[in-house]
Write a structure and sequence with these properties.
By secondary structure, the protein is an alpha+beta fold. It is built from three helices and two strands, in the order αααββ. The protein has a two-stranded antiparallel ribbon.
Length: 125
């Protein structure tokens, strides 16, 4: 009986190691963190596939639920003022520093375009 338990434990460890390990170039820092992140997203993909196979929810529905669950709402603090505005009909989030300059002077801006928002997620979430 103990031999079966040891064999099961070793088999489970070997399977887990095989599933987590991905060949990554040596020059990449924090290789294990990248491997575990990849393993996490592959597991979510397998969960979505399994859910669709059982007829519970389609693949994109599961992925949309996961992206909705991890949503972070932008919040203002003592250094940054956050507002949601429309620029020519496009929803944007504006981050303005509170400590530098006034509203009358021109400021430089960084425009960040996040791709893929309509594939997994939506423009408003």
């Amino acid at each position: 009986m103990q031999l079966k338990g040891i064999f099961l434990l070793l088999s489970l460890g070997a399977f887990t190691s095989y599933y987590v390990y991905q060949p990554i170039p040596d020059k990449i820092e924090e290789r294990w963190k990248l491997m575990l992140t990849d393993c996490f997203f592959r597991s979510l993909s397998h969960l979505a596939d399994f859910s669709e196979l059982l007829g519970l929810k389609d693949y994109m529905g599961v992925m949309m639920f996961i992206t909705f669950a991890e949503r972070v709402v932008p919040v203002s603090d003592q250094r940054v003022h956050v507002t949601e505005e429309l620029f020519d009909g496009v929803e944007v989030v504006v981050y303005q520093p509170k400590l530098q300059g006034g509203d009358t002077e021109l400021r430089r801006a960084v425009i960040y375009l996040h791709g893929g928002g309509w594939c997994l997620g939506s423009a408003s979430e």
